[in-house]
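JOB MANIFEST
job_type = single_chain_structure
chain_count = 1
residues = 169
[input]
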Amino acid sequence: MEDPEIAGAAPPPGLSSLLPPREFLRSRKGQLLLAESVLSFIIFICYIASLAASFMMAPLLEFLLALFLFFAYASKLNEKFKGVHWPLADFLRCVTAAIIYFAISIAAVSKYNDGASKAAGVFGFAATIVFAIDFYITFNDLVTFLKQGSSSSPEGHKTEDEDSYSDSD
């Protein structure tokens, strides 16, 4: 039997097929989503170990959402499923995550005295900054996308309302 590497065939798919491409990991969006996932997981673990365990659901949901979007963008699901407006969904996720992390971090740092709550609060403030950077970048991408969409419509095409308005002048 012939060795597949000698025959020039690609090695059989394994664990490496689950990893995202290097280009995505080097992109700004890939790095932000990876940072959001890691920070959310760390905050989740800190809240589990703290007295503020009631706050653990927010980091868990944000971890799962960031992980889903990480693999969705890495596998280019956003190009395959056009029915979802991906930049808008990502923008709303980032805005709500930044607000929620900011609020629960203030509560964790000010209300609870154990070290795990304080650590979760500090990591929560870092996550707030990362999510804020992500929603700022996503917002700029969303604005340029919307400007391109409005400029691509032909100039000479008017709606009936515009025709009736210009005739009354």
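[summary]
The mean pLDDT is 81.
Helices lie at 22-26, 28-48, 57-74, 77-80, 86-111, 115-151, 160-167.
exit_status = 0
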